[in-house]
């Protein structure tokens, strides 16, 4: 429940920021009224946005520019679901900037990344604080949910059940021997 609430708050802030900036500063009307802009403004807004976003992202290392659903899938399969905080910040602010600049894209991709990163960072924080009682139900719920849906999961993604089981083993090792979790 804690992870869901935290994730919901992060995604809500993301959505409110976009709607507020668009509805109060950039668009006459509401946050979805790009058609009310002049032809020149509709041409220039994404071009200026792309230039600013491109210059900003070019200053970051390649590993910090990785964002989106593909990044989340890669981190789930190769890094025990640990999503870096910097990438989440890039997704949060870069996603807001891209969407207010009129880029064609939805809010769903950033929401997937932000939701996964929020839960991942919360889990890492709970584990680091050794708050095992709060972390255990989250891990068990994730594992049980995957296990119950095993037959409906496409074959190429069923390895995630093994990854979830490995996370449980790592969790119990860390809980039972906090100083020796890496052995």
Question: How does this model look, in words?
Answer:
This protein has 183 residues and is mainly alpha-helical. 69% of the residues lie in helices and 0% in strands. It has 7 helices and no strands. Helix 1 (2-26) crosses helix 5 and helix 4 runs antiparallel to helix 5. The two termini are 31 Å apart. Mean pLDDT is 83; it is low at 179-183.
Radius of gyration, CA atoms, in whole angstroms: 20 Å
Overall mean pLDDT stands at 83
Question: What's the story with the biggest beta sheet?
Answer: none
Helix content: 55-70%
**Share of residues in strands:** under 5%
Distance between the termini: 31 Å
Q: What key attributes describe this structure?
A:
disordered C terminus; mainly alpha; 183 residues; 7 helices
SSE map:
Blueprint: H1 2-26, H2 39-58, H3 69-78, H4 85-100, H5 108-128, H6 132-148, H7 159-176
Short structural summary:
By secondary structure, the protein is an all-alpha fold. The chain has seven helices and no strands. It has helices at 2-26, 39-58, 69-78, 85-100, 108-128, 132-148, 159-176.
């Amino acid at each position: 429940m804690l992870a869901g609430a935290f994730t919901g708050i992060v995604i809500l802030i993301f959505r409110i920021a976009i709607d507020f900036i668009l509805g109060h500063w950039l668009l006459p009307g509401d946050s979805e009224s790009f058609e009310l802009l002049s032809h020149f403004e509709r041409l220039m807004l994404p071009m200026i946005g792309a230039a600013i976003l491109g210059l900003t992202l070019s200053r970051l290392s390649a590993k910090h520019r990785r964002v989106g659903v593909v990044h989340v899938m890669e981190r789930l399969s190769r890094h025990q679901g640990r999503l870096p905080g910097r990438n989440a910040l890039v997704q949060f602010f870069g996603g807001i900037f891209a969407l207010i600049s009129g880029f064609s894209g939805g809010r769903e991709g950033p929401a997937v990344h932000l939701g996964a990163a929020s839960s991942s960072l919360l889990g890492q924080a709970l584990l680091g604080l050794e708050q095992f009682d709060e972390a255990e139900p989250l891990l068990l719920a994730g594992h049980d949910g995957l296990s119950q849906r095993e037959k409906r999961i496409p074959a190429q993604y069923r390895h995630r059940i093994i990854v979830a089981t490995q996370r449980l083993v790592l969790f119990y090792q860390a809980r039972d021997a906090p100083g020796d979790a890496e052995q």
